[in-house]
Amino acid sequence: MPGGAGRADCFQGKDLRMDQFILNIVHRPEMVPEYAEKVTGHGQAEDIGRKALLTESLDIFKVQQECAHRNGLKTTIEMTYASLFNDEAVELAKADHERFGDEIGLTLLGLPCREFREKYKTKDFCIWMFSMEDKKAIVTDVFEKFYEKFGFYPESTGSYYMDADLICFIKEKYPSVKCAVATCWEEGPKAYHTCNNSWYTFMDGGPWAPWIPSKQNTHAPAASEEEDSGIVAIPHLSRDLIACYDGNGSNFGTHPQNVLRGMIYDSEKWEYPYLYNLIDQYRYQAKFNNGYAYNMMFVGPGWMNKMGRWEAPYELLKKSYEDGCAYYGKLKKEGRLVDMTMSEFADFYRKKKSYTEPECALWRDILYGSQKQLFWYCDPFMRVGVNMDQGGAIFDLRPYVAKLNWPVGIGTPHIQDASYPFLIQEKYRAGYFTHYAGEGTIRSAKICHNGEEVDLCLCRTKAHFSQEGKNRILTLDPVDIAFADMTVKLQTVITFTEGASAVKIQRKVLEMSDPQAEVTINEYMVGCYGTTEYPEDMSTLTMWAEKNGVRDGLSYEYKCREISMEGAELVACKLPPVETLVSMTCEGKDRIGYLKEGYAFSPMFTLGYTGKLQEKEVFTTWLNLEKAD
User: Fold this and answer.
1) Residues 352-373: pLDDT tens digits?
2) Most buried in the list 67, 87, 322, 562, measured by CB within 10 Å?
3) What share of the chain has pLDDT > 90, as a percent?
4) Contact by Cβ (8 Å): 165, 240
5) What's residue 302's pLDDT?
6) Strand ranges (DSSP E) for 225-316?
7) Secondary structure of 180-223 in HEC code, one letter for each residue
8) CA 362/CA 375 separation, integer angstroms
9) Residue closest to 605 by CA, chosen among 519, 545, 517
10) What's the mean per-residue pLDDT of the chain?
11) Are strands 382-387 and 502-512 parallel, antiparallel or unpaired?
């Protein structure tokens, strides 16, 4: 069993030694760790200034630092506001900076303490949820307190999420900052539901690996120097890019105690092969990113509570962190890992990556044994998820090209919801496998013959990655489609061209049992927009087909209308609420473009093309994204 006893080395025999695998270990001396007051208080009334709580928190921070240093790893110490009032915490940071080269940074987590609550009269602790006026006051307060203690301003900062306005303010006022923890991958409704509907942090739709956030929207990478917010952003933990998307990401990360929380370990032997396989899978991503891969751990003392957590005793919590650091240390000794501080990494990243260079991940299931395989693609114009278990269907699509101005916090339209909106999202808007009525969001194709129809979403396959110049290419293994009187062997090739803001999909008939036969292909996209499971108002959308400058279209009124056009050059939908124009174009025999309007029970829109295919022929479509006027 991949997550069970014994090391199930999913990457055995893979030569990863020549690639650059970069590690950030980030510790924070959080004097009042999240949840810890309720646990260590032993039923007493809340007192976030309780001496026992502060002492235990600092002791755990020391253990975490010692684990890293014992294995030859440097850390970034992200001082919290509360820790700045603790002389011992300040001196520990200074000493480890001098002795081990640790960076002293400043996190905007760990705000709650007696001094903060007395000054700001609130129990809020998520910096991005405050009003902009309060954000500025808090940042100024925290940064100046840091300067008072250390005599310099930090080069790194962070939180679970940092909105674009906050980042721009910090960079303008404190230009020394060059790196920040800026989002938590797929921390949205899925995480909310697994926290008993009580964890109001919604930030789906961002990158899973480091990026340069744009001035307009933190999630959307900058496409140029003009859009550059001035920092390099890193994610809050490195997540499992299948398990996290399918379920609660808090259980599936390269933080050892995430794995304990997910119960993904041998409870008798206290072993956790999944953790090492997850780290190795991140190492393997260098194959798809010009020889570079990244991993991070962001740890506060609350993870190692002396009373235990998640049915695990303190001894196991401590052992898991020691073992995790030991594995990273082993990789470093073998020349397979480079540890960096956050600011060192920011300098490295800016030299390594260009603005338009995408981040790619060809990811496979290492937890459940399903052999499921996903491909993730992220650049300044879009984030795309492709599922090989569904024949190469696009199951997640975020239109970064719009660079949505999405202010977050009190006094804005999005107090808690920092997610970047989707056009396709199979978990919140069904996907292919749905109920008897309506449709789910997906981008796929159907092959039709003599009244029979097969959706490629039903055809499991595997993908192989290649790179040719600016093209990142997924070549899928051919699938066999069986009709009553004929079989068809069909291959899909998906191409992402750097900077093109489009996904090219080619379907090629390799062979037919009847070489003279012909099949019909129906390439389609079912889409909508939103950030949660709940439908949005679609009445502002407009849709059209176009040929030779002539349009035939409709305004969305939930009336189930359809339009088709022979030889259409384009079919499109304009979505003003997310400032996006999505379209499909096509090269293929007998092409007919079409569009469909949804209805109240199924508030989607559909764009597509049909055409004909014979043996050795190819049908090509492009899914294009533009910022709407």
Assistant:
1) 999 999 999 999 999 998 999 9
2) 67
3) 85
4) no
5) 83
6) 232-235, 292-299
7) EEEECCCCCHHHHHCCCCCCCCECCCCCCCCECEECCCCCCECC
8) 4
9) 545
10) 93
11) unpaired
